[in-house]
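*Target chain*
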Amino acid sequence: MSSTKTASRRIVLIGFNGAQSLDLVGPADVFAHANASNSSARQYEVTLASPRGGEIVTNAGLRFARTVALHDISGSLDTIIVAGGSREGLTQAMSDTNLLPWLEKRAPRTRRVASVCTGAFVLAAAGFLDGRRATTHWGSCAQLQEFRPALEVDPDAIFIAEPPFYTSAGVTAGIDLCLSFVEADCGPPTALAVAKELVLFMRRPGGQSQFSAALNVQAAATPKLRTLVSEITGDPSGDLSLPSLARRAAMTERTFSRVFHKEVGITPAAFVESARVDRAKALLETSDWPLARVAERSGFRSLDTLHRAFLTHTGATPGEYRDRFGTPATEPVRRGNT
């Protein structure tokens, strides 16, 4: 955690014509609220820059006036964040003779160099991500891997930290990445206060899936199944056996299984397990409950069942996941009754 007596950390947000608006506004708001949460010191000094300065027009048509030209930025920097944007905007930005050379010169002397969404293409073009794991918007992961085969694209993560380089998934994931920066710089209480001020449902750690099981299913299901999906995710601890779900859908078990699999591409049992793993993740991140209680509240019959499902879906045990993503407990965990 930083001292309140230290100088403000200088952050440069790089946009361009065709940039995604929220890739710039989201991070800027995170750092602004971090400043507002500490009345005794200004934690961050944020500069909106572009390759040549002046006005830029985002993909949504929003105009940002008086951006600072990269060549006019002097002094040391703490963090550089490159926005994503339209394919045409990215192509023009990467061909601008001011951008990549500036990044190549500045990166070795900067603590963090990050991208939001398809801004990862800019970092990849500079060669920063070769031999590293990286992510971007799910719809652009295949293109990023083809564009730069020397990097390893993870299409599922919200953000990936490979210091000094950081990449995040699509659009709003940039907010999660910047919240992680605030947490590292200012401590968990400040990061949680910023998340609350921005009315975020929860602070998502990197390494989580870009999509929940419910979101994947709801995107493909008919209204009738979407209602059932919402009910399952709302209470994954209930009776979600095939006979029970078929009755709730007013179908025979055979018809329900066929329709569910046809519409969403997975079996009802696979979806139920994914929904229960998602609930267990949330409980592991936000509570200090014993694992047996987490298993019960997530709908798993036993701790062993939770353990097996977690290894299958995340490659980690519940305990390992909590160690990485859990909020530190403010009181000793009671290991008695669950």
Summary: The chain has two domains: 9-197, 213-325.
